[in-house]
Each structure stands twice: as C-alpha cells, then as structure tokens.
Amino acid sequence: MVHCYQLGGSGIVLDVNSGSIHICDEESYRAIEAWERNGSEGIEAEIAREIEALISAGKLFSPEHSRLSPADDYDVKALCLNVAHCCNLRCAYCFTGHNLNDDTQLMSFETGKAALDFLVANCGGHRNLEVDFFGGEPLLNLDVVKRLVAYARTLEAEHNVRFRFTLTTNGLLLTDDVTEFCNAEFDNVVLSLDGREATHNRFRKFPGGSGSYSAVVGKMQRFTALRKGGYYIRGTYTRDNLDFTADILAMSELGFRHLALEPVVASPDSPYSLREEDLPLLFAEYEKLAFEMAARIGGTEEFTFYHYSLDLENGPCLHKRCAGCGAGTEYYCVTPDGTLYPCHQFAGEAEFAAGNVRDGITNRTLTEKFAKANLFSRSDCAECWAKFYCAGGCSANAYHASGSIDGTYGLGCELFRKRMECAIWLTANTASA
Q1: Secondary structure letter of residue 72 according to DSSP
Q2: Contact assessment for residue 316 and residue 310, using Cβ atoms and an 8 Å cutoff
Q3: Higher model confidence: residue 373 or residue 330?
Q4: How does strand 331-334 pair with strand 339-341?
Q5: Nearest to 200 by CA among 230, 241, 152
C-alpha cells in the first residue's frame, strides 16, 4: 500500500508498511501512481528500473506487517495521577462534563503513595517509569505533589527505576516556587492556553463567568522564560475558531516556542463541536500552518507544533505503531480515591474501573479487552494509509463516538490524516533542504 499526495509543490509518496517517504518529481510521482494500478505497464524503462529497485529494497509497495499478538505480561509503565478532581476554572469543553466543582476531591498523600508503590510493583523490571500529575488543577494539591515526588525519588535506587514526571496546569497558580520545583523535578510541563484572548476567554472561564486570559498569560510567559526543561503550550480549538492557525501564531507572538492545539471532542449536539462540513476549512488551516512553519525554519520566530513533530528515522517501535498509547494495559489513570481507569477520559465510568492502587488490577477481563484493541482490531483501519502513525487512534474517542473501544472516531480520523500529510511534508522538506 502506498499513499500519494501533493502539497506545497511537492509530490510525496509514503510506503505505508515500511514508512519510507519519497519526494518525487512530477514524472516519478505519476509513474508510482500508475504502478499501483497497473504495475510497470506503460512506464518509461529507466523510471521502472528505479521503482523496481525500491521495491526490492523494501521501500516501496512493501508487504504488510505480521499481525500483532496482544501482550500477556501487562507490565505497567505509566500513571496519570488525578491529584485534584477539582479546578479553579470552569472550562466549558472539559472532558469531565463540568463535574469539577467539588473542592474536597483532592488525592491524599497515602493514596498517591500507594499508587507509586503499585507502579513499581507492577512495572515488570522496566526502569523508566512515567507519572503525570493531572486534574482538574493539580497545583491545588501542590503539597501532596511535592511529597509524592520526594517519595518517588526514594524508590529509585532501591528498585533500580527512574521516574519521569510531567505536570498539566491551567497556569493560575504558577509562582517562582512552582517554577523552581518544576525545573528541579519535571521533565515536561503542559500549560493550557487556547490562543487569542477572545478564543481563550470563550471557554476557559472563572466560576463567576469571566475569562481567565489576562490572569494566566503573564505567569506562563515568566514560567517559560525561566523554564529549564521541556514544556508545551496546549490549547483546544472548536467550531468557534476554525481559523485556528491565527491562535497558534498569536501564542507564538507571546514568545512561546513549543505549541499544541487539539480539536475539541464533544457531543455532536454541542454548538461548538466540529462537523463534517468544517473539514475543508480545517484542512486549509493545517496546510497554512505547515507553510508558515516552513517559512520560519532557522529564524528567531521558529516554533514547534506537537502534531507536526515526526521522527522519520527513529520513530516509535513496531509494537507502539500497532498497539498505541497502552491505555488499560501499561498505562492507567488514578482518581483521588485510588480507583484505576484505562485513562482519564474513562474516569468515573463504572464499567471501566480496572481495580485500585491497593488491591491492584482486579478486572482482568477489561485489561484483556484493551490489550486486544489495536489497529488490527479496528476494521476501519485496514485500508488507512495513516494507521502506523495513530495505531488505531484513541480508544476513549472511539468509545464515545461509536460505543466500542474497537470503533473509530471518523471525523478525528480525517483530521489526523491531514495533520500527518502536513507533518510528513514539513519534516521531509526540512530534512532535504
């Protein structure tokens, strides 16, 4: 299987199974398109020989990978600790469905400690373990976060593990003390900002209804200026800002250099949910963004965009390309009461409770179900050229869109494929420049 497309004046051919990417002149591009339909018939001899050489080298029309066998060891490598299922904002599109008003829902140190012990006990000898402090707003429980990080560090030498910590925050509680702590302990910090002031304030509001933009931007600018380590400014776009490139550029103008903007996933009945008829505009925006980034490469205004960051030489291993994020098998979300869920988007849904941090995984049927959920279990993925970039997509999005973790979220698939076309074009052209 190959995927041929044209973008930015380039003819691009992706060999789906090998991952090889070819930047072609017009004649070669048309020849490969024709070869897929009719083989070498009618193709100029020299070009045909070049195509045959690529086929022999396994870089064009390569055979399908062997089917992935579900893992049977279920080693746990990462946890999302929902240390504060409460928040000082009331963002309208929050995945929780606005259920973040109970300020008593803070994880205790004892529960967090049990979660870290669970992770170490179930890691199967893996050395590198990841813990994301999440919410709600995790900085509402900063003291417990600090104590848990300190406790985790005491486990490293004893168990020959290394913890990698991340934090996701809305920025309201950022202080120089928090910055110093993050610089010392956190490999990555994700800051939530939606772009232009009007865009951000449309959904990211205080409980009283006023927007939060002016309260967070200055704090985020100071934090990133002092940051020693990775960070992302991460936002959400909706039907109210289909011209989302303007929001990305606005964040860049604020001095932020590592950006991400995700499409909202909401009920089809929501006025801000994305629709099929929006796709042409959204596709054009992704292309516009890629061209803008290409023009800035090497300059002082260069920035990265999360979905366009590809490693075409040393990307994820084949298992990851087939099995995805590991939700429900090697990755779990822990709620403040210690319940384990496959990820934060399943938190609170009783049928997806996998166990708890004290008793471990008690719902093995659920684990096995998630272990079998990969790109080979999703029939819609069989002929998709982007399948080895998304590994079948997000199980939570699939479930909420189709009712099954083996389903797909069709609109999300369309957006993902377009992002990959732009990312491949940007990365390949940068490498060949």
Answers
A1: S
A2: no
A3: 330
A4: antiparallel
A5: 241
Residue 298: cis peptide before it, omega within 30 degrees of 0: no
CA gap 171, 146 in Å, rounded: 17
Report the greatest alpha carbon distance in the chain.
74
25 to each of 9, 29, 31, 45, 267, how far by Cα in Å?
Answer: 10, 6, 10, 16, 44
The Cα-based distances of 282 to 195, 242, 278, 414 in angstroms read 16, 6, 6, 10
Q: Of 28-42, 285-299, 363-377, where does the model show the most confidence?
A: 285-299
- Using an 8 Å Cβ cutoff, are 107 and 82 in contact? yes
d(CA 346, CA 327): 10
The pTM (predicted TM-score) of the whole model is 0.92
* Dist. CA 52–CA 43, nearest whole Å: 12
Task: State the DSSP H helix or E strand holding residue 340, giving kind and residue range, or none if neither.
Answer: strand 339-341
Tokens of 181: 């702590």
Alpha carbons 23 and 429: distance in angstroms, whole number: 8
Q: Are strands 162-169 and 186-192 parallel, antiparallel or unpaired?
A: parallel
CA angle 390, 395, 397 (to 5 degrees): 95
- Which tokens hold the place of 303? 């920035």
